[in-house]
Amino acid sequence: MTWGLYGGYVLFVLLVLAVPGPDTAVVLKSSLAGGARGGVLASVGIGAGNLAQGVAAALGLSALITRSEPVFLTLRWAGAAYLGYLGVRALIGAWRGDYRALEPARAGGGRYWRQGLLCNLTNPKVLVFYVSMLPQFLAPSFSVGEALLLAGTVAVMATLWQLVLVFFVQRVRGWLGKRKVRRALDGVTGTALVGFGAALVLDH
């Protein structure tokens, strides 16, 4: 692998990360509910999921999963159900408008990490991304180490990007903490998560 090819891969990953998806919605939701700690833990959980799926792809496991229709469909439905669950919870929070029970000091940190991890692991599009895109940047005689490097690059860049989002949320937290703004954001985030879940079901 050349530095030029690797640079092109990094640029491609940046463009992919710029498009909001389920991971972004979960990070924003966690940052609002759990403060900086919640957002960071969700980001780390997503990064762990990314790394696990990337390593699986580098070792050839993801290709086997995507070629097994029952396994892939099960993963798709599990991901859709989990995103729908998170989305409905956010919508209920927006409807009630009572955020006293969601103060960062009272929230369990492990919950945010698990939400980030499960959001990523149950998203079959992440598998498809790794399986379809890694070979585009690898020579036919590539080594497992090169594939692991590309997979690890995605995990690191995605985590850094999500941490930037967490930092941004904390910078404007005073404004975001207003009840009307918070309800509107929870409504948008919840709708987006439900929409992402529906897209997983309807996307063939």
Please give a structural write-up:
This protein starts with a helix and ends with a helix. The chain contains 9 helices and no strands. It has helices at about 5-15, 20-60, 60-65, 70-95, 110-120, 125-135, 145-170, 175, 180-200.
Layout of helices and strands, plus pairs?
Blueprint: H1 3-17, H2 22-58, H3 61-67, H4 69-96, H5 109-121, H6 124-133, H7 144-171, H8 173-176, H9 179-202
Helix pairs in contact: 1-7, 2-5, 2-6, 2-7, 2-9, 4-9
On the 0 to 100 scale, the average pLDDT is: 79
Q: What count of helical segments does DSSP give?
A: 9
Strand content: under 5%
Q: What is the rounded Rg?
A: 18 Å
User: Strand count, sense and closure of the main sheet?
Assistant: none
Helical percentage: over 70%
Give the gist of this structure.
Helix content is 81%, strand content 0%.
Question: Which keywords apply here?
Answer:
single chain, 204 residues, globular, 9 helices, mainly alpha
